[in-house]
Amino acid sequence: MYVAVKGGEAAIANAHRLLADRRRGDRDVPALTLEQIAGQLSLAVDRVMAEGSLYDPDLAALAVRQARGDLIEAIFLLRAYRTTLPRFGYAAPVDTGRMRIERRVSATYKDLPGGQLLGPTFDYTHRLLDPALAGDAPVEAPERRALAAVEDCPRVIDILDREGLIEGDGDPAGEPGDLTRDPVSYPVGRDLRLQALARADEGFTLALGYSTQRGYGRVHPFVGEVRIGLVDVEVEIPDLGFTVRIGAVRLTECQMVAQFKGSAEEPARFTRGYGLVFGQSERKAMAMSLVDRALRADEFGEERRAPAQDEEFVLEHGDNVQATGFVEHLKLPHYVDFQAELDLVRRLRAEAGQRRAERGEETR
Amino acid sequence: MGAFATTALATAAVAGGFADPVFDAQAVFRLLMGAMAEPGTVADLGARVAAPAPLVPAAAALLAALADGDTPVWMADPAGAGEAAARWLRFQTGAPITEDRAAATFALLPERHDPVGWASFPRGTSDYPDRSATLLLPVRDFAGGDGLVLAGPGIAAERRVAPAGLPEGFAAALAANRAGFPLGVDIVLVCGTAVLALPRSTRVREG
Amino acid sequence: MIDEMETEGRRRAMGALACMPAGLLAQRYAEVTASAPPALAVRGPEVGLVMLRGRAGGGGAPFNLGEASVVRATVRLGSGEVGHAVILGRDTGRARMAAHLDALWQCPDWRVRIEAEVVAPGLAAEDEAVLDRAEETEATRVDFFTLVRGED
Same domain for A225 and A314? Predict the structure, then answer.
């Protein structure tokens, strides 16, 4: 039960002012610019875009600054902002096969067509704190290797597909559901699961993906391919009837290859989990692909026993804005609820005392 | 000019929208809300848009305020006689134009039609009665026709209206619609720049 | 056939205007439109969202990935040509310039100039940026070599 209580206006106003002061910090230190955040904390900005479900690096950088680096708060800000804007329409599905590759690795084939391109990765760093980065030491320009032309990078999945050893992409038709428009009712299709996972909390998705590796749901995964890069976005212009390029977005895609034993009707083959995320976020895309595969248990006649295989559990708890709202609301005034419970506990104790007294027991 | 020999059509499609999209849409929304809250009253939405025929100005203003990419609009013959209107709506609202009645959120009914066809527009579901269509029906005039007596929410006792140019079987169709409450379609009569709303909650009898 | 070529040409030009570096667009626009008929605002520029979509598995059924900020504008020339622009981001000036150029592109005498002085340099700048990045990535390609082990 909630009761409106007046009061605290001055305290709230002063708290906001104090927040602004603490956010700014020492005035002798220059304020962070949005260019600095977008340019030098770009993976934080990517995470805010992915889970805020809004691709806009400048706004995500602003949100990170406004939230004092609290990324879930920044995600909340971005989600709130998007509700104020009209939706002009829907882009054509992106073609990740035509991605302009910035990183691309496969764990299934060493010498695969297109090669292993490490890109700007933390892998192979020693995870030793670098004191030089505490200052502003000069940084070398990247090494280059000449290319005659930029070509599309073939998909690893297609290599297995040619032999029929792996499931295909499935029917490309269909109009996807949108969980930002219609309430979710279970069971849901893979379209809604992928939408939910793409915007789900990275930590939650990671933990669930990890759980599938530790035996909570059968996956046995290999990274078929992870690719990061820019992909063109095309929309149809109303009244013209054709699509045009409107820019490019950076995406991370993961194709997770998983085993499938086969059945009496079907020969054995590999199955796949899929991950696609805004920005550069390999961890999220990989975890997403593990959970996507785990959630397809019914398709392959697998028993659903683990949390990662339970779509209602995954979809209802993966959104960190919903989760933080419900957890954090507990700090708001519950004075009346609590009074009611307090009265109840007192009454129960009094009644129990009375019963003991009636039975002639000693009361404590 | 090849594909763009249709410049005139393209120009017509982009002309005649709200002069001030935010305030015009707010004003139309407020007037419609009043009309829905007091069924049977006439609300003049004003001359805020200039849309190609057969779009009635009030219907065009209503859709300019309420329709968007998530609200398919049904109309007859969008590739033929309705092409200019369809292009105008697509540009001004972003709404998909559909010929599938079951997909419609709004329906631009032609003047002469059989209300029996209303049954094929969405009437909502018991979980989501709001997932229903709003039908925009052009009439000749809001007065001078056969009398209808309205009752229900938003009406103190009874309200009498007499729109002219209603299709045959209108009252019976409204009664059938009312019988499925809370499911059903909502009707907005349009004439010139004005509207008269008959939401599904209104009971209508001839008299 | 001519229609199809014209459509494809306009599609390519609109894409180039939307994707070229903002500074280059502003500079080319100022030069080209100094003597051009002005654009009359029809709608916008206004900021909104488009829902981006992916495909399950990369090539399967579509799903909604998340939204992106876009800015759009529609303008008209006195002679009736209607120009559109839709561009990722929230740069309203850029949308207005691109829409104006799209309207002018539909006039045969302007098309040649816009193609040569805006679209071509725009596409070239884009290609150069793509190649730049690709060459940096290329330097991180793993060249496997096999170690000789044991003796025979």
Answer: yes
pLDDT reported for residue B2:
39
The 3-state DSSP class for residue A281 equals coil
The answer on A103 and A28 residing in a single domain is no
Asked, for residue A19, whether it belongs to a domain, the answer is yes
Q: Quick one: A59 and A112 in the same domain? A: no
> Helices marked H in A199-310 — which ranges?
202-213, 282-295
Instruction: Say whether residue B90 is in contact with chain A using an 8 A CB cutoff.
Output: yes
Name the residue among A71, A60, A70, A67 with its Cα closest to residue A37. Answer: A60
Closest chain C residue to A253, measured at CA: C58
Which residues are B61's β-sheet partners? none
- Residue B87 belongs to domain spanning: 3-206
Q: Residue B185's domain is classified under what CATH number?
A: 3.40.50.11310
Residue B55: CB atoms within 10 A of its CB come to 25
> Does residue A88 lie in a domain region?
no
Q: And the tokens for B119? A: 């049954």
Same domain membership, residue A255 and residue A359: no
Cα separation, B54 vs B38, in Å, equals 27
The reported pTM is 0.91
3-state secondary structure of C57: helix
CB spacing of B7 vs C108 below 8 angstroms: no
Assess whether A239 and A361 both reside in one domain. no
Instruction: Give the number of other Cβ atoms within 10 Å of residue B59's Cβ.
Output: 29
Q: Which residue has the tokens 């990045």?
A: C133
User: CA–CA separation, B15 vs A152, rounded Å?
Assistant: 42
ipTM of the complex: 0.93
Helix, strand, or coil (residue A273): strand
Q: How far is it, in rounded angstroms, from Cα B161 to Cα B143?
A: 7
Count how many domains chain A has: 3
| C152 CA: distance to closest CA in chain A (Å) | 26
Determine, for residues A88 and B14 on separate chains, whether the beta-carbon distance falls below 8 Å.
Answer: no
Instruction: Nearest by CB to C19, from A110, A190, A248: name it.
Output: A248
| Local structure of A171: helix, strand or coil | coil
Task: Look at B14 and A239 and tell me if their CB atoms are within 8 Å.
Answer: yes
Task: Give chain C positions within 8 Å (CB) of B3.
Answer: 3-4, 6-7, 10
Q: What's the whole-number average pLDDT of chain C?
A: 93
> Does A206 share its domain with A276?
yes
Q: Are A59 and A82 in contact (CB under 8 A)?
A: no
Subunit contact B68:A238, Cβ cutoff 8 A: no
pLDDT tens per residue, range B94-125: 999 999 999 999 999 998 788 888 889 999 99
pLDDT digits (tens, 9 = 90+) for B144-192: 999 999 999 999 999 999 999 999 999 999 999 999 999 999 999 999 9
Helix (H) or strand (E) holding C52: strand C40-55
Based on the fold, state whether residues A102 and A222 are members of the same structural domain.
yes
* Structural domain contains residue A140: no
Are residues A112 and A74 part of one domain? no
* pLDDT tens-digit map of A117-155: 999 999 999 999 999 899 998 999 999 999 988 888 888
- Domains: count for chain B: 1
CB-CB: which of B13, B14, B69 is closest to A89?
B69
- Please report whether residue A179 resides in a domain: no
Q: What is the domain range of residue A165?
A: 96-120+145-169+184-324
pLDDT at A307: 96
- The reply to whether residue A181 touches residue B10, judged by beta carbons under 8 angstroms, is no
Inform me whether the C-beta atom of residue B100 falls under 8 Å from chain A C-beta atoms: no
Q: DSSP code of A333?
A: -
Q: Which of residues 176-205 of A touch B (CB under 8 A)?
A: 181
